[in-house]
User: Which sequence fits this backbone?
């Protein structure tokens, strides 16, 4: 009887795991479906208009970020560095942050399981709608890193432009 009880408990556990996996799959599909609605740039007021939508942005150096804003103003996503003469390029790094109206703050720790550049960058800025109706995120950034014998901080600015999704584009990477 003990063996039958163990088999029954094992079967129930497998069944529960399968139900959880199916539910997670439906959640992923639902998230992917909403993630590719094109942002109405003309109606953009602030980051609350991006809730539950993944949007992609590119800066003047070709670096790209894909972000999702939650109903609690949390920002999550990933960042792919393409800036010339820098490390940690061409692979996604987790991005986290917060929004408040049209203002945004986000950061990337440059370690992702593939590379570790032993550095971190924080951006702060705001979203603006240009006269032509396009949306950009204007930011200042601080990069902290090991510079020679002691830590250092480099400062700069980035201008991110919204990239509308292309037809047939793959869903954004999930964290």
Assistant:
């Amino acid at each position: 009887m003990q063996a039958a009880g163990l088999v029954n408990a094992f079967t129930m556990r497998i069944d529960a795991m399968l139900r959880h996996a199916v539910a997670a799959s439906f959640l992923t599909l639902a998230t992917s479906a909403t993630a590719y609605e094109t942002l109405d740039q003309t109606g953009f007021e602030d980051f609350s208009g991006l809730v539950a939508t993944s949007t992609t942005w590119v800066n003047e150096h070709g670096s790209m970020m894909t972000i999702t804003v939650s109903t609690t103003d949390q920002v999550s996503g990933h960042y792919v560095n393409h800036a010339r003469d820098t490390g940690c390029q061409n692979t996604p790094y987790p991005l986290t942050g917060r929004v408040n109206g049209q203002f945004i703050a986000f950061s990337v720790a440059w370690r992702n399981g593939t590379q570790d550049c032993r550095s971190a960058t924080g951006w702060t800025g705001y979203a603006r709608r240009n006269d032509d109706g396009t949306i950009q995120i204007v930011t200042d950034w601080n990069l902290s890193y090991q510079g020679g014998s002691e830590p250092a901080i480099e400062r700069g600015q980035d201008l991110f432009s919204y990239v509308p999704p292309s037809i047939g584009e793959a869903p954004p990477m999930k964290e």
Q: What stands out?
A: The chain is about 20% helix and 45% strand.
